[in-house]
Amino acid sequence: MALPQTELRPMGKPILRKEDPRLIRGKGRFVDDILLPNMLHLCILRSPYAHARIRRIDTSKAEAAPGVKLVLTGEDLAKMNLAWMPTLAGDVQMVLATDKVLFQYQEVAAVVAETRAQAEDAIQLIEVDYEPLPVVVDPFKALEPDAPILREDKEKKSNHIWHWEAGDREETDAIFREAPVVVKQNVRFQRVHPSPLEPCGCVADYNPATGKLVVYVTSQAPHVHRTAIALTTGFPEHMIQVISPDVGGGFGNKVPLYPGYVVAIVASLKLGVPVKWIETRTENIASTHFARDYHMTAEIAATEDGKMLALRVKTIADHGAFDATANPTKYPAGLYSIVTGSYDFKAAFVEVDGVHTNKPPGGVAYRCSFRVTEASYLIERVVDVLARRLKMDPAELRLRNFIRKEQFPYRSPTGWVYDSGDYEKTFKLALERIGYEELRKEQKEKWARGEFMGIGISTFTEIVGAGPAHSFDILGIKMFDSAEIRVHPTGKVIARLGVRHQGQGHETTFAQIIAEELGLSVDDVVVEEGDTDTAPYGLGTYASRSTPTAGAAAALCARRIRDKARKIAAHLLEVNEDDVVWDGAAFSVKGLPGRSVTMKDVAFAAYTNVPDGIEPGLEASYYYNPPNLTFPYGAYIAVVDIDKGTGAVKVRRFLAVDDCGNVINPMIVEGQVHGGLTEGFAIAFMQDIPYDADGNCLAPNWMDYLVPTAWDTPRWETDRTVTPSPHHPLGAKGVGESPNVGSPAAFVNAVLDALSPLGVEHIDMPIYPWKVWKILREHGITE
Amino acid sequence: MFPNAFKYEAPASVDEAVRLLAEYGYDGKVLAGGQSLLPMMKLRVAAPAVLIDINGIDALQGWREVDGKLRVGAMTRHAELEHAKELRDTYPLFFQTARWIADPLIRNRGTIGGSLAHADPGSDWGAAMIALRAEVEARGPQGSRLIPIDEFFVDTFATALNEDELAVAVHVPTPKGPAASRYMKLERRAGDFAIAALAVHVALGTDGRVSEAGIGICACGPIPLRAAKAEAALIGRPLTEEVIVEASRLVPEDAEPADDLRGSAEYKRDVLRVFAARALRDIAKELQGKVGIQ
Q: Which residue, of A71, A476, A495, B162, has the fewest CB within 10 Å?
């Protein structure tokens, strides 16, 4: 039972999360909790090599092993035309390898057995004869003319996948030619992984008697999964039901369709019983989709007095063996062209080249709206490089170059139309709250004593809430989202949405939206997501899109219900509809405040006392196609102290001032900010998936892929300004990803600010203690 | 994440455990706290045919002082040593080390004997026991013997224990005179194995000069190592800044770190030097005024 929160007008209030009582008591229902009669277990054999030809696979011993019901190889799938499947990026990906493997941990064969232990025992008995091939892990080497071609299946005999650009090359180059100041910096955004607590997994349940295929899958986008399964397997879509139960974190990892899902479905279709496949931690990190891995170069052209004129960006994007980046179809580099950030550049030009290497496929948005994290990190880092070159305070340089509030809606040189913002106000609040001037004073004193403290700033702009449909689609499906609301006769409400939360608190925030619009309490509204047989079609939860799209749909759907309710209220009040007014809690008669009916009264009447000419019932649905994206932003400031002896960085303070427009639930927003900052902190200081020259993954588990604990995590200070989105029905913007998008640059800028007396321009993330130690010792600084 | 099939034995006494070890030989593996062994088995890196679970042997629990030594039972959990108030004054290195081991869950299950017998060079207890000049009490079919800690670690994951011997306790000499210690550890993340760590134990004689010096090095070689040169540089001398600097510079000379994801060998050596100096300065401060002459 949720705690009763009967308050009316819940909008903007810190309502406790309705989902927490079950989740914190261990009563959630995750995919691995699903146990079905006669269920079998699937286990996948993976390649030890990063690049090898498969000469022969002998499955005979595995087939004879105890409990084994089925062994599948790529050849078996090829007979069903399922050895390959489409990716979200228009490429294809092997489900089980046929002639060769292209990354370590690639799926090679699968065993289905009565128990998981039997399946794990049996895959050890599969004999695979590999012929190792030359490995390419460096995307720059992959582009060299003599590099081995990795994708022999493709027509294009090159490891180069695509070239993409945005902005105006000539105009930008012209400004650079004349500019008095040009700075240039290479910046790597390392390969990281969303690494949710719950790894990927599914139960595929084909019932030969009904012909129905139910797939329980830990999914951020159940409808997309249903359509992708239909398109991949040819199974009729109306006979597929995808159920995404409680999801233990997604962060972008649970958007794509993975080979394991296809294999589980094939196994269930062949055997006619449910088949469960649950990844191990290693399988999750080392084979499901990674994020980032961008090798970026940025140049800024500026005047000597600190006016930024133009931005030029060149990027090599390492996509691994298959191009499986999860981006809208027209945007192979996602929304990366938001790289001009919060600054009023005259011109910009951005180009990205996608490259194949012998690494796992991916390019998902890890708590990030399609490559925005890379863009924000790059611009915020390079603005600091320019400040250093100009010997100008990085805060002052930002203030001189912000897009001013009167310029909104602002068209950026790469074509985005920013909806709203007041960057100066938000940044000045942050400077004041952190005590910027005093910190600078303290820093000077510390430097004089040979101590190193740093202040790092990031004033980023996010771009979230895809659609609009004219520009954005996934697999051709337009990126709208949806809500369906049913008001029961007693005035209680069930609402279903096309998105799927994984910790974002939709069961609470969307209940707040609907309760607010209908004059009810949040306890009157239950929000359900994740079952494609009941929820309206939607594109899912990622890229901070739920509130901008489904949240808007929920509000507009509720208003549709209110419009009908007004007609019924007029009937109950025995007046003309034009004489009925809604005050947020009840309908009353204009000029007669004593006479009113509540939504509960109307709901009962909708089923018991409907006037002629009006359909009974009180239900509505709404498919919302946003007119534009929303552009939340923030001003983040980190204060760090450096241990000269070990090079360790201590984050003394971190302040995040966010502006995500109108806030529906400030407690949930703050929780989102805390979580995102913690992930940004991890990326800045801990997380990386390195590969050795043979393509061996060196961080395939939580021993080496580091997820911070509460002990490591700095204390977060938060604040906010409110600049509503002019086009969102509630004036809201997305927020879940802002802290992860905006914070890495603040951390890294703080470390470089601390080291600025040494003239160090840049350190690539993650900033491990040894990197700082090396710089200190190279400059003769020791303890 | 299931291990290979294995046979399970749960002896109720040390004698029975030793008999089972003799019976199964190489195929047998002792299960203590299981915090390293079980993950290795689940990853199928380790696949023992027989697990001999010693968690039911009461005689392996707890500690007592005997004959100028503290005897700590092999199955004493890290968390017990972390929280044992009665050990804090005389044997502070136990709680100072225990609180750095992994995370609370692992400390609740993991044991000091299991950790030493596993012989991971990144084990925090290894360095601490070197600093305290501990001995490991081994019991075999022929009875008991004490193995000095410097002879106990043979190589990574290899000890001087015979196949049929069980580590039943660790013995630590009671410091003579005022003593202090520090455990210094640098991690990439809380609960991670050390980038480098150092255990330092110092006791002063009545003349205020160092009478006992023990410095154990963690995660900087194939086994936990002793900073013998630095120890020698401390013995018989007062803990002045000059002596501290000299001794701490000698610590890296006995380390054998390797380049890896945690940092270069050069880096780890320097961290050991920094840690030694910090630990010795802290210790000097703590012991100031504890003896007549300084």
A: A476
Distance from CA of B255 to the nearest CA of A (A): 17
Same domain for A747 and A640?
Answer: yes
In the annotation, is A368 catalytic?
Answer: yes
Residues A617 and A761 in one domain: no
- With CB atoms and an 8 Å threshold, state whether B195 touches A770: yes
Would you say residue A681 has pLDDT above 70? Answer: yes
- Which of B1, B186, B278 is closest, CB to CB, to A280? B1
| Alpha-carbon gap: B64 to the closest alpha carbon of chain A (Å) | 33
- Write out pLDDT tens, residues A584-635: 999 999 998 789 999 999 999 999 999 999 999 999 999 999 999 999 999 9
- A737 among known catalytic residues: yes
Q: Do A261 and A242 fall into the same domain?
A: yes
Tell me which H or E stretch contains B273.
Answer: helix B265-287
Same domain, A446 and A553: no
Q: Which of A93, A106, A220, A672 is catalytic?
A: A220
Q: Is B277 on the interface with A (CB under 8 A)?
A: yes
Distance between CA atoms of residues B73 and B111, nearest Å: 9
A225 φ/ψ angles, rounded to the nearest 5 degrees: -60, -40
The CATH number of B179-288 is 3.30.390.50
Q: Would you call A770 and B191 a contact, using CB atoms and an 8 Å cutoff?
A: no
Assembly ipTM: 0.96
Q: How many domains does chain A have?
A: 3
For the stretch A776-782, contacts whose Cβ atoms lie closer than 8 Å and that sit 24 or more positions apart, written own/partner, are A776/A642, A776/A644, A776/A647, A777/B270, A781/A450, A781/A644, A782/A644, A782/A645, A782/B270
B-chain residues within 8 Å CB-CB of A773?
Answer: 263, 267, 270-271
**Averaged pLDDT for residues A456-479:** 93
Q: Hey, what CATH topology would domain B60-173 get?
A: 3.30.465
Which among B267, B280, B198, B200 is positioned nearest to B240, based on CA atoms? Answer: B280
pLDDT higher than threshold 80 for residue A4: no
Active site residue A557: no
Query: How do beta strands A481-487 and A619-624 pair?
Result: antiparallel
Diameter of chain B measured on Cα atoms? 64
Give the domain range for residue A667: 402-410+418-466+629-783
Residue B205 in this model has a pLDDT that exceeds 90: yes
Test mutation, B260, B274, B275, B278, chain A, max A CBs within 10 A: B274
- pLDDT (tens digit per residue) in A396-436: 999 999 999 999 999 999 999 999 999 999 999 999 999 99
Contact flag B190-A709 (C-beta cutoff 8 Å): yes
Q: Tell me the sheet residues that pair with A165.
A: A351
pLDDT greater than 50 at residue A1: no
> Mean per-residue pLDDT for B73-95?
97
Min Cα–Cα distance to chain A from B9, Å: 21
In a mutagenesis test of the B interface, which of A283, A646, A702, A776 is the best target, namely the one with the most B β-carbons within 10 Å? A646
pTM of the full predicted structure?
0.97
Q: What confidence category does residue B292 fall into, taking pLDDT thresholds of 50, 70 and 90? A: low
Region B7-53: CATH code: 3.30.43.10
At residue B67, the 3 state secondary structure works out as: coil
- Restricting to A residues 683-712, those with a Cβ less than 8 Å away from any Cβ of B are 686, 690, 698-699, 703-704, 706-709, 711-712
Helix ranges restricted to H, A31-142: 60-63, 74-79, 116-123, 139-142
- CATH assignment at residue A720: 3.30.365.10
Last residue of a domain, one of A603, A624, A645: A624
Q: What is the pLDDT of residues A173-199, one digit of tens each?
A: 999 999 999 999 999 999 999 999 999
Partners of A116 on chain B (C-beta within 8 Å) are 2
Average pLDDT on B157-162 reads 98
Residues A166 and A306 in one domain: yes
Q: Taking 80 as the threshold, does the pLDDT of residue A7 lie above it?
A: no
What does chain A come to in residues? 783
A565 and A514 in one domain?
A: yes
Q: Is A220 a catalytic residue?
A: yes
Give the residue range(s) of CATH 3.30.43.10 domains in chain B: 7-53
Average pLDDT, chain A: 96
